[in-house]
Amino acid sequence: MKLPQFVRWATGIRWQFKVFIPIIGVLTLSITAIYAVLRSQEIRGVQWTLFAAVCFAIILCFVLLSVLLVLIERPLEELMQTIAKVRGGDLTARVDFAKRVDDVGRLGQQFNEMIQQLDENRRLIEELHKREMARAEHLATLGELAAGLAHEIRNPLAGIAGVVDIMSKELPPNSSSRAVIGEVHREILHIQAILNDLLSYSRPRPPSFHAANLNTTVEQAVELSRQQVRTKPIQVKFEPVPNLPPVEHDPALIQQVILNLILNGIQAISGTGEVLVAIFPDHDSVIVQVSDTGRGISVEALPKIFKPFFTTRSEGTGLGLSLANSIVQSHGGRIEVASTQGKGTQFKVSLPLQHPKKTR
To answer: Is the pLDDT assigned to residue 107 strictly greater than 60?
Structure first.
């Protein structure tokens, strides 16, 4: 709503003049009343008495203005100048009127304390930033080293696997060494899985975003996981959401995330159990929930499950959940986990309908 012209003009008047408006009004009314009383009483020298009253009013206004200039105007000017310095990045600026012992001085003290706290927070943030940058450079170096080592190890490992296969074919059918060869072959596959996860973690593929049906992406991961439980009394159920709007995501990477969560749930179940995968909208995002009836995760291990190389299984690589978390974060989403030992674990993958522009 547009303000009237008079109101807009009044808001632009400096505060000193606004202070004098009611004072002048009161003095004018007082002088008028005094003049009326003097005339009604027929007192001589009305003009001189009125003149004296006007002079007194003028002197009073001048004294009041001087007091206001000293007590209010100068601190305000200093405060505005200091704020301008702080806005320019100078957090060493302070106001001098904080030395006063009145309310204005206490205001100055609180202002100086606030600026000092801002200065300390900035120094802390800069220190943390330096540490994080150093840590990031350290991790990047380790990632390059790990990727190089993985490449160097894979080739000899492939040769060892070939030799083991040849040895297993040349052994007699009733040889006791066949059990050892089988164990060696399983360990080789385990090492290869670790190397593959390590390469994926150290050199992740950037997401290729496009609008796609998230129901289809998750359903493909569910179908792949069902191949793992054909001979087990474990059910993998899927509950899609109808009329789901297209979600901007990389179907291959999100499928990898959901498949990893489902397989973790399957491996946590000993005997009969169930893994339920459900999708439901949540404002401007979509949540994929993976729940299992497995053994659950301990309270001590729960905060560590997304850290690289942390695993509670002897056959795990400890990189699956860390890689899944990185993929979800690259989509502008997040993973939440809740677990109760003996009852199961629940993962919630939240993905925005449209990924943030900064991830493009």
So the answer is: yes
pTM (predicted TM-score): 0.53
Residue by residue, DSSP assigns 278-300 as EEEEETTEEEEEEEE-S----TT
Question: Please, which pLDDT band fits residue 11 given cuts at 50, 70 and 90?
Answer: very low
Q: Which domain holds residue 140?
A: 135-202
Task: Report how far residue 210's alpha carbon sits from residue 84's, in angstroms, rounded to the nearest whole number.
Answer: 46
Residues 191 and 153: their CA atoms lie apart, in Å, by 9
Same structural domain, 223 and 294: yes
Task: Look at residues 176, 185, 251 and name the one whose alpha carbon lies nearest to residue 212.
Answer: 251
Long-range interactions of 24-32: CB distance < 8 A, separation 24+: 24/61, 27/57, 27/60, 27/61, 31/57
Classify residue 37 as exposed, middle or buried by CB count within 10 Å of its CB (0-12, 13-18, 19+). Answer: exposed
**For the chain, how big is the Rg over CA atoms in Å?**
38
Whether 240 and 316 share a structural domain: yes
Cβ atoms of residues 195 and 150 within 8 Å = yes
First to last CA, the chain: 40
* Inside any domain, residue 61: yes
Report the pLDDT value the prediction gives residue 286, as an integer from 0 to 100. Answer: 94
Tokens of 302: 């729960």
Query: Among residues 327, 211, 196, 190, which one has the least CA distance to residue 261?
Result: 327
User: Please, which residues have CB within 8 angstroms of residue 298's CB and are 6 or more apart in sequence?
Assistant: 312, 341
Could you tell me which residues come within 8 angstroms of residue 123 by beta carbon, excluding any fewer than 6 positions away?
Answer: none
The total number of structural domains that make up the chain: 3
Q: Are residues 251 and 214 in the same domain?
A: yes
